[in-house]
Design goal:
heterodimer, A: 490 residues, alpha/beta, 11 strands, B: 483 residues, alpha+beta, eight-stranded mixed sheet, three-stranded antiparallel sheet, 15 helices
Amino acid sequence: MTITTMAQLAADLKDGKRSSVEITQDYLGRIEQSDHNAFISVDTEMALSQARAADERRAKGDASALLGVPVAQKDIFCIDGAQTTCGSKILENFVAPYTATVVDNMQSHGIVSMGKTNMDEFAMGSSNETSYFGAVKNPWGSNENALVPGGSSGGSAAAVSALIAPAATGTDTGGSIRQPAAFCNLTGIKPSYGRCSRYGMIAFASSLDQAGPMTHTAEDSALLLNTMAGFDAKDSTSLDVPAEDFTASLNDSLDGLRIGLPKEFFGDGLDSEMAAIIEAAVKQFEAMGATIKEVSLPNSHLALPSYYVIAPAEASSNLSRFDGVRYGHRTEEYSDLVDMYTKTRSEGFGDEVKRRIMIGAYALSSGYYDAYYSQAQKLRRLISNDFTAAFTECDVIMGPTTPSPAFAANSRMDDPVSMYLNDIYTIPANLAGLPAGSIPAGFTANGLPAGLHLITPYLQEAKMLNIAHRYQQETDWHTHTAPSSFGGNS
Amino acid sequence: MFTWDQRWEVVIGLEVHTQLLTKSKIFSGSSIAYGAEPNTQASAVDIALPGVLPVMNYEAARLAVKFGLAIGAHINQRNVFDRKNYFYPDLPKGYQISQMELPIVGFGTMDIETQEGTKTIGITRAHLEEDAGKSLHEDFQGQTGIDLNRAGTPLLEIVSEPDMRSPAEAVAYLRKLHSLVRYIEICDGNMQEGSFRCDANVSIRPRGQEELGTRTELKNINSFRFVERAMEYEIERQIDILEDGGKVTQETRLYDSDKHETRSMRSKEDSHDYRYFPDPDLPPMVLEDSFIEQVRATLPELPTEKKARFQSELGLSLDDAETLTTDRETADFFETVFNATKAEAKIVANWMSGELFANLNKSELEISESPISTQQFGLLLDRIADKTLSGNTAKQVFAALWEQEGEVDAIIEAKGLKQITDTGAIEAIVDAVIASCPEQVQQFKDGNEKVIGFLVGQVMQKSRGKANPQMANELLTKKMVES
């Protein structure tokens, strides 16, 4: 089966070849047949009702670009009337009474929200194995060789890659869009911090979290980002910048593009096969008129430790509201307040979440704040400065998205630190708030996708999408379908 | 007056939480009106649903700056919100958004009047924070009801230096602060409703020692009287402990006003680690110079300035000036009356401190609820100045005005209270009195000058209080001397 992009679906809808209801029913059927466990919940009624509304709007002359196209929503976004779990038992039965701004924006453009995708619990993870609702199968694996889809947006990546949803939203705090996109042969973009509203997006690490598109193509990501982005007065960290059409410059020439390759990203720890694929991908750009130069991000090695202080610290505070008092899971029997809190949270949170809450509380505690949290924030400034300096010498920084391709299910759960090392290339962009993305760049000998990582200066998502789109016009990695995808041959 | 063994010096610092008079909460648009049904003024943001975010209400910053300017404090134009993390059911997020390192208002001062004269009290800082909800322990069969209407109400926490040396000084500071925040209209000061909450830090040390003793915190006492008594009890308790060779435990204590004692709050850790860190959901607040100046322009004349002006320009005594400037409404009432009436400032002051306040107190009314308006009051004083009324008859008119029997002149007319100033008319009464009191007249002629009082009294009686007493006195004297 070939991939159907959102652009293609939009064309079909525009030409009247198919209705939104038909398209949505088609995907709902695929979801039902899939065994990837990519979804936590699918409210077919809600999806079809939105599809009908989109068809009605179209009949009245509405010509919004993605009107009537279904998109799967990561279960981190609150949707009014929908079960919203964040992959956790503590919110297993929580039905949100309001809708996240990003989703609301999409829905006002006529996009059909189709299902809530599986994810690592509270977005903490790189394999979708910490979800209370079970692991997700990477369609690039098989029953004999089960692979992780990456995380935390594992369900979104698997759904799009398995062809059971044309596109999905994800969130990225340390790589949670880009790493699963790389593991699943997708285009995944983490926009500039502040580009998309965080209102209604359940918070993990407030200064790092960003919502973004996960699609088959850069063009689709640009179309989807158009409907997601925008200033939101309800989010004090939201950027008040003029609206941008991220598709406008997709076809610009890359002649004269200066590509920077940080020497720190090509050192130890990078799989040699992965290195070769990335190098070949980068060379492709030379043929398109780009120049390549080595740059340096000298403080890169501090990114992972800084992140694993800052993110858990913020998370430990953000997750305090899950206390069983007002909503969510509350333990059934308790003797007093502290007993209620302890049991509720012990029962409701998984191990990785507990681990990070404890790390975070420790890093903020009296006597340790200066050495850990405060220090990490200072290092963050240095990392950000490295990028500012590097961008005086180049227009885009490239490298591998992950050190190695998708790994086997259940292979790293006993070693959290080895799990954390997955994010080594993606984390710096979150710390610096820069736009970053991953695009398919080739396959390993075992047939597993490899992702090329791109970072552009602040607010230059359009440039990044242009670079990705032009690459996708010259290559076809992004058109390969997974063996265990819908209609595939597994 | 409360005293203690003077070998011990008392050190008191006060933290006051004032609810700011904004229309909505500090980080959400919910109303902060008092008395609504539980949980009807608590939005998604207030109840900390997953995914919600705070948005700053700049009116709270404006009122905080207003306070800072009123105490001559440094304003931190760049200030930061921090998260104060702890778990309690009335704290929905599991953290309170407050300010730790960089509060909006820095060091300022406020003068208080003590027995030894004026004393300047330092105010260390004032910062913005959100209030928690309420925990209701009764009516729920052993459970606790949580009302989140109050969660998110803007508070300005005002922290004094440990400059007070007695409960009396502490209360003087609290009263002054209470009056100031109402003066500049940043807080309604309603202690019963919890708009103005005092925590007192009390310690003692041997007189002459520089090092501070261990302090205890007395929390959330909602009347000035209870604050004073709680501190008195605590001072005696601490002295007893130290004199017995023991040590004061640093802890939080509650005051029981029925038993007149303080008690340790159960299961409260003293140095709770709040794991403060800057709130990543709120960028640092940056206040432009123009913002500060706009706020400065809205400051009314402050009590201290007004008091000084009342003395220097209007010639009022310190006591009168103090009484009239204690709160904004009284000061405004006085000035409105004074500017409209021909009467002298002193007369206005006397009538306010006298008849007006006496009646307000008896009827338990605030001056803003006075049945007598400033116009009526002013006109009454005019009628005294133009001698239509004497002090005596004016009191009768006042009483009638209080009962809202009508306007000043109408009452004078209806009760026939117009003072007799016609010389001829008074003369006639004087003649009648002289004729009927030969004994007293003779006493006067024999040199007893004091008996004139009796005779004037007779004139007053015969005229049913309407004769002008000074004129009566003059005419009596003249006639008796001449005869």
